[in-house]
Amino acid sequence: MPVETFPQSRLIQFLRDELAIPTTAIALALRQPEQSNNLPMVLWQYGLITLEQLDQIFDWMETA
Question: Is the pLDDT of residue 3 over 50?
Answer without folding.
Answer: no
